């Protein structure tokens, strides 16, 4: 008789649990990676995404939800001929008139005088100052008080050429270098600048005059999601200085923020020293005449001066003693 062959028992794989365990660990690792990525939000990218979504949803044409009409263009006006190219398909044209300028350079006080047929009435203020053409203009006694206090409290910064003070019969200018206010390409106010701004705010709280904060940059281009150009950067810097002054107790209805970008230089942008002078923020404390520019500059054909080109400045207190007036952009 032939003997039966014994079959060897199949080997049982006792390590097969490692496959499931490895899958579990991989999924757990991926879960924590996703949780970490969600917890750290890039504020700049979040703003860009938010602005893009808002712009996209605001630009939706109601006609886009309707069926497409053959033989014509979707949302095309009746006056548009068939076959005429549409520069912005799917978005209805905005036919509203352009808004008026936020900053009106023509002084309202002198506009009122120009409308009167008779001679202007005598000013009620006791202090009068001769203008460059020999006429007398009304001065604000608060400007003298503000100028003296600023010169006293900011003497160290004035000697270090970080702050320049200028005054004429219509306003007082406090020019602050960007080197103490902001980092390069940023509109966040430095911590070292909070104390000088607090000193300025303490002085401005005591007078009711209007305050105009103006931001300027050099001509170096910038193109970031937050600041596409120097217009946005200069306006953001001026607005942030306004926020600091408001937090220090200056009433917000007295203030305004304006950005000029690189278009109002006071020095040559070809040199580093010139670019440093052009990167600045100017606080303009207006007089009670509500007129920053004299009447003879509002005649036909006469262009109003730019910031830093104050007409007939009565005083100037820069660190070097140089009167920074009548600069041409």
Write the layout of secondary structure elements.
Layout (H helix, E strand, L loop, with lengths): L16 H23 L3 H16 L49 H8 L12 E3 L5 E3 L2 H13 L1 H5 L3 E5 L3 E7 H4 L12 H11 L6 E6 L13 H18 L7 E5 L12 H7 L1 E7 L28 E3 L12
Parallel strand pairs: 5-6
Antiparallel strand pairs: 1-2, 3-4, 3-8, 4-7, 5-7
Helix pairs in contact: 4-7, 7-8
Describe the 3D structure.
The chain has a domain at 138-317: OmpA-like domain (60s Ribosomal Protein L30, Chain: A), CATH 3.30.1330. Helix content is 32%, strand content 12%. It has 9 helices and 8 strands. A hairpin with a 5-residue loop joins strand 1 (128-130) and strand 2 (136-138). The protein starts with 16 loop residues before the first helix and ends in a 12-residue tail after the last strand. 23% of the residues are buried.
Q: Which percent band covers the strand fraction?
A: 5-15%
* H/I helix tally: 9
Q: Helices and strands, in N-to-C order?
A: HHHEEHHEEHHEHEHEE
Number of strands: 8
Structural class: alpha+beta
What is the third-level CATH name, the topology of the domain at 138-317?
60s Ribosomal Protein L30, Chain: A
Strands in their spatial order, largest beta sheet: 6-5-7-4-3-8
- Largest sheet report: 6 strands, mixed
Radius of gyration (Å)? 33 Å
The CATH level-2 architecture of the domain at 138-317 is identified as 2-Layer Sandwich
- Determine the mean pLDDT: 70
Shape: elongated
Low-confidence stretches: 70-135, 291-315, 317-329
